[in-house]
Amino acid sequence: MTIQIPRCSKTLFVLAASVALIPPVFGQGNDDPDGFVIEEIIVTAQKREERLMDVPLSISAFTDSALADVGAVSLADFLQTAPGVGIVDSEGGTQNIQIRGISSVAGNATVGYYLDELPFSYIGLSRVPDVRTYDVERVEILRGPQGTLYGDGSIGGTIRILTKEPELDRFAAGFDLMGSSTTDGDSNSALNAMVNIPLSEGTSAFRMVASVEDYGGWVDNVASGVDDQNERDITDYRAKFRYMPNDDLDMVFSAWHSEQDTIGNTLATDDRTTVDQAPTVDTEYDVYSATIRYSFDSMDLVSATSLMDFDETSTTFIPLAPGFAVPFFNPVQTETFSQELRLASTSPGNFRWTAGFIYRDMDQNSISDIPDLMITQDQTFESESWAVFGEATWTLMEEKLDLTLGLRYFEDDAFNSEVIDEATLAIVQTIDPNFTGTVDQSFDSTNPRLNLSYRANDDWIVYGNIAKGFRTGQSQPVITLLQSVFFGVNVPTGIDPETMWSYEVGTKGTFMDGRAQLEAAVYHNDWEDLQVLVVVNPPVRGLVNGGDATTQGIELGLTLLPMEDLQLRFTGGYTDAEFTEPVAGINIADGDRIPNVPEFTLSAAATYRWPVFNDSLQGFLYAGAQYASDRTDTVNFAKDSDETTVVDFRIGVEGEVWSGYLFADNLTDEDGALAPYFQGGAGPALRYRPRTIGAKISASF
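RESULT FIELD:
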């Protein structure tokens, strides 16, 4: 039997209609005579608690137990097992994520990123912090534009990292201790610890989490003779205080401090060597938040206040001639204040609603310093934005049909100022004679959403979703404009906003008496004024508007519980992401693939437990594989990346208090390029950490 991958939205939606026929065949109840079913997951993706399988959107959720089974310590360890999601981790403190072909490594975010209630964002940077997963309650991945509830920056989707709340009625403590060794590299170690202390039983509690990690390098510099030049140290501290004087009022105050100091990155040739001097990147952020919930008779009021202070100091190198490069210093400091107020109905009935307001103020300072070329630019960014939003759901047809309408109005006042000497200004004005170094812009967007879901029975739904996503425009940094003149690259002084309309049909449900779950979706996205990255020189990059594009694809996820202690999971995504018009002055032709988007992502995993030593312990076995097809970037004349398959394996024993594991990450020692080769096929590219074998001991009290 031959299956042809569809390449047009019409065919995709015909397939969706076929998928929708599944419920009458398989959705036949959730009563398990043998007493075991797949774990039910509760999510808050729509700002209210719901069963994951009842949410009429494409969502993946990873619970704390699922993250522990995988042995995940960062997003890169598991995120790509969600259908249609890709991630590239340079081990430099931040990561780049694409969802459904919506990707960018520069400019404002294309994926919304939330630490609890905090919208983690920068100005002009789409990277996300490398958050550690110890003591995380749940990670939710919403695929497709989330412009109504989450706004600007969620054009591709939204990732929510939800940490555990303090427990009010019991003392708890735990730790993880890990040691490992990397092939062709150095050793690694990590210590994570948690303590939960009730201060007044049932009323208040304090929870503290600390992590200290040290990862050795594995890239040898054959020019300098330095072995294992890439290494990083990570420290992470998190504290939460919860006060709940009665059943109606719940207040949580939190503080989060994280530091990552890195030397080098995973850029290497396929023999794990480089001739490039190691860059250094030090990232540090402090996050403070207060979330207050008050329950009225028929609604909940939530106030979420957050403050973030983010600092990144990097030193990279600009090649001027073979074997000669000059240092480029780029400290960036960002302060973000956010305040959200929202009301959500809680009374039972056929009408449910959520309404809210959010204000965000961001100030960012960036210094670009190339002392050898006598270039220093001090750039100040400011962004003051606000939005009002609401969603309402009506249940019709004897509780079979849900109609949801949503709307968000967003405004952003953006200001950019740079002090420019007359010589530099004269050079930049060869691009734009009106450029002065000061840019004051305003952006606004109205983002609607329409969702219809049909409940075939208690265990199966079919849904259709239409939504709009939006990403603001921005000015181009002077350092980029100046370098573009020197290196002959055509970039504008500013870029326009981009918008997207998304059309999706999907289904999800439970069958085989609760021992199997299926999710499937097809989508088509129309993308206008796509913001495209142009490499001016390796460390300096710019943005241009690359015209219109489409992304469309299919996503599937299947979880099986064939026996009580064995769980199997399979996921897959196909993404057809391409430009639909040529763009003059840029290497974009009609039909070219969008940069950095793999056409196929696949994953498979098995988890098995069995009793040992008279049932006092249980054995544990996990094996998983993740595949991504090649990524391309014709815009920058790059060579395609490699297809990659990474396999992970864990085995151990688990008790009520302690557990011990042996593990092998990247068991087959995959060394293919994760991103396109910007310096030709023989040049360096981002790669997976080589095979890493180690042991881990965990305890909880």
